[in-house]
Design a protein that fits this description.
263 residues, alpha/beta, Metallo-beta-lactamase, Chain A, seven-stranded mixed beta sheet, 8 helices, 20% helix
């Protein structure tokens, strides 16, 4: 990776239903702390004049407006669940502003699911309606060179399914995982910033817990760690009080800078 400062913006830090959850009357869903309001999970990675999006959550339009995102030059997908892809149509304004197409990257399973779900995008017949201009690419685990920065897919277990996180320079973003295979742990040494799924304290078949993610932090020893994909079981303030100083909860709108030359 080139020696270039990278800024990560957390667009959403919540679960598939978000926080507050519809119809819920719990204390976190009614919290006045803005950090307890969590849209569906996604990040935007900015370096130089480029912007790379990881996942297009259903809330993407609002997330982009709220965070003032001006460029999306490529999109990486962790997997094809609805909370990670259903905002894809809202990238159209970036086609208008930037001109040209936007490359998207995912596993073979993910790209196939996106083609089925958004069939109209990839239909080559004439249309009077606008649609995103995208070029899909299937990755094979090798680093993806996006404008001089290499994004390495990191295979993860999501219950019985397989999803991917991404390492880029001194940072890694791992959401929606229940287990990190040993061969993937080897890709995560020497990190400045590590994002990890930490749904709640109670075990879940497809997600990591706070306790399990703390064990991962201890093994990998990143300089800083941020937990994401957080449900309404975890209040921001009371949860952070019980975490080590170098481990924090991510929250919507959080911006993190990776120092130039971090690797």
């Amino acid at each position: 990776m080139a020696a270039e400062r990278v800024t990560i913006t957390v667009l959403g830090s919540g679960t598939s239903v978000g926080v507050p959850m519809i119809g819920c009357r719990c204390a976190v869903c009614h919290s006045a702390d803005p950090r307890d309001r969590r849209l569906r999970p996604s990040i935007h990675v900015r370096y130089g004049v480029r912007g790379v999006l990881i996942d297009t959550a259903p809330d993407f339009r609002y997330q982009a407006l709220r965070s003032g995102i001006e460029r999306v030059d490529a999109i990486l997908f962790t997997h094809s669940h609805a909370d990670h892809v259903m905002g894809l149509d809202d990238v159209r304004p970036f086609n208008y502003r930037q001109g040209g197409v936007i490359p998207i990257y995912g596993s073979e399973e993910t790209i196939s699911a996106i083609r089925r779900t958004f069939r109209y995008i990839f239909d080559e017949s004439d249309t009077e309606s606008s649609r995103p201009r995208l070029v899909p690419h299937v990755f094979n685990g090798e680093p993806i060179d996006l404008f001089g920065v290499h994004f390495t897919p990191v295979r993860l277990k999501h219950g019985r399914g397989t999803v991917y996180g991404f390492r880029f320079g001194g940072a890694a973003y791992l959401t929606d995982h229940s287990e990190i295979p040993e061969e993937s742990m080897a890709l995560l040494a020497g990190l400045d910033v590590l994002f990890l799924d930490a749904l709640r304290h109670k075990p879940h078949p497809t997600h990591s817990t706070v306790e399990r993610s703390l064990e991962t932090v201890e093994k990998l020893a990143p300089r800083r760690a941020f937990f994401t994909h957080i449900c309404h079981d975890l209040g921001h303030v009371c949860t952070e009080e019980r975490l080590p100083p170098h481990v924090r909860l991510a929250y919507d709108g959080l911006e993190i800078e990776i120092p130039e030359g971090a690797a």
